[in-house]
Design a protein that fits this description.
By secondary structure, this protein is an alpha/beta fold. Helix content is about 50%, strand content about 10%. Strand 2 (about 115-120) and strand 3 form a beta hairpin. Helix 9 (about 190-205) packs parallel to helix 10 (about 220-225) and helix 19 (about 430-450) packs across helix 21 (about 490-510).
């Protein structure tokens, strides 16, 4: 067969293939598509041909067995030996001798909590270790309301808010909080701790930037950890350092894709007790175009003319705060938490906040209690006036009259943090453990004189975690919680007992 014969044969084959192909249904449409595609965009045709050939190659490739054993088979004796040698890592570090001794002496309250509490050993003590600021734990009106709600709605809704868990009392307390704060909307969570730790990851994701005060509480830290965002810290309540960090972030991100940026701080700091300079924070937030998440867990219900929090206390427009998070379990003696803001902020959380979506809704009786306490704060100004008078009375007994400790809390804070003075710590060369030991002895001495107080406590370090890994570390302090359940004379006596306990311990441990 010469070249001409081969050419004629090849042409006959192509014609035969074309005839057979045209008999296939839809072949004319396919041919028109290929012709128009090649004329209009030949590169696309080449890519499609490559993908077609790749698919054919993939389908015709030989199969491989996933059951082929590529590991070394161990004998039963070797397996038993490895199992015996395996030691699981503990979930937490073992208790220290100090922690064991503290747990053995820990007082146990029998019966209801109040300004006067009965311990398991039968003694009656003055209780300044509980967050019962307005003595609401024993309020008969609130008890009766809670009982009525319990009989009508039952103990709990037994379902998440988005799936038959929302009741009319939940909608009412959300509206009450929004009205009390002056925001457009509000969302209520079933647990105070999980509120802020769910709000943060609902908005801040991987690649976003969070600038946070180094002294923020543990719930905020967990929320930031869950969000997987880039975190930058600024020195506690240092507005100059905050400005430097914000300017640095803006400069670094100038040539990068736009990300969401947040400032996170507290109204009254849980670990320190002092107050944020919200006016300055809002000013910097607007200048550098950040969003602001403000945790008012301990300031809501305490600060301001009606207890609306640090925004009311410092005269800041609440709409300047993008997300205002608070607790219903602290000063309000109810349960759960909330996040207030714009309608868009709130509605986003109903689908994106894990603690709202996957947790059972707040029990109806707690929602009713929160609404009742808010009404009391708005109509009964004597509640706030009395707690502030008791705070001043306790301050007069402790901070200026003790040569050993100083109160680092804001003067409006009903939780007084009494830390050893820096000169005392320096002169005695006291480490963190030494300070905790001294403070615990002060707590024990006060309890021996029928006054129950406590220490500021934080989550223990993880296993093999050093101070360098932690960064900022909480300074130990006594915690004294003021309540309106005590008269002026009782507050004075309580403060005197605590001051004498501090003096006695410090003089004995020279």
């Amino acid at each position: 067969m010469d070249l001409r014969d081969a050419h004629d044969w090849f042409i006959d084959v192509l014609n035969e293939v074309s005839v057979q192909f045209q008999k296939v249904p839809g072949s004319a449409i396919f041919l028109r598509y290929v012709k128009s595609s090649y004329q209009n965009d030949p590169i696309r045709s080449a890519v499609e041909l490559f993908l077609f050939l790749f698919a054919v190659r993939y389908l015709l490739a030989p199969k491989y067995s996933t059951s082929k054993k590529s590991y070394v088979k161990l004998t039963d004796e070797e397996v038993d030996e490895l199992v015996d040698e395996w030691a699981p890592e503990p979930l937490m570090a073992p208790q220290t001798a100090f922690e064991e001794a503290e747990n053995e002496k820990r007082p146990v309250i029998v019966g209801p909590t109040g300004p006067k509490s009965k311990l398991s050993n039968g003694r009656m003590v003055t209780n300044v270790a509980s967050y019962n600021f307005y003595n609401l734990a024993g309020n008969e009106t609130l008890k009766e309301k809670a009982i009525q709600t319990l009989r009508m709605y039952g103990v709990g809704p037994c379902g998440p808010p988005g799936f038959y868990g929302t009741q009319d009392v939940h909608m009412k307390v959300e509206a009450d909080i929004a009205t009390h704060l002056g925001t457009s909307a509000c969302i209520v969570y079933a647990q105070a701790f999980s509120t802020i730790s769910s709000v943060i990851p609902a908005f801040s994701k991987r690649g976003d930037i969070i600038v946070a005060d180094e002294a923020v509480n543990f719930a905020i830290r967990k929320g930031m950890q869950i969000s997987r965002s880039s975190i930058r810290w600024y020195k506690h309540n240092d507005m100059e350092d905050l400005q430097n960090v914000l300017a640095s972030v803006v400069k670094e991100q100038a040539r990068k894709p736009l990300t969401r940026r947040f400032i996170i701080t507290e109204g009254l700091f849980e670990n320190i007790g002092d107050m944020v300079n919200l006016v300055k924070v809002v000013e910097l937030k607007q200048r550098y175009k950040f969003r602001l998440i403000l945790d008012e867990t301990w300031s809501f219900g305490v600060l301001g003319r009606t207890g609306a929090g640090v925004t009311e206390h410092q005269g800041v427009n609440v709409r300047e705060v993008d997300m205002l998070v608070g607790s219903l379990a602290g000063p309000l003696c109810a349960g759960g938490g909330f996040c207030a803001g714009s309608n868009e902020i709130v509605e986003h959380q109903r689908l994106s906040a894990s603690a709202y979506t996957f947790s059972a809704a707040l029990p109806a009786m707690l929602a009713t209690t929160a609404s009742e306490v808010l009404s009391m704060l708005e109509t009964n100004g004597e509640m706030l006036g009395q707690i502030r008078e008791n705070i001043k009375t306790m301050w007069a007994q402790l901070d200026p009259r003790s040569e050993w400790v100083q109160c680092r809390s804001a003067t409006e804070n009903p939780i007084m943090m009494l830390a050893l003075k820096p000169e005392v710590v320096a002169s005695r060369k006291l480490g963190i453990a030494d300070q905790e030991q001294l403070l615990q002895e002060m707590v024990d001495e006060a309890l021996a004189n029928s006054v129950m107080t406590t220490r500021v406590k934080s989550m223990p370090r993880g296993i093999n975690v050093t101070a360098k890994d932690v960064g900022w570390e909480l300074q130990p302090a006594l915690k004294v919680c003021i309540t309106t359940g005590l008269t002026r004379k009782e507050v004075e006596r309580t403060g005197t007992v605590i001051r004498h306990a501090i003096t006695k311990v410090m003089k004995v441990r020279r």
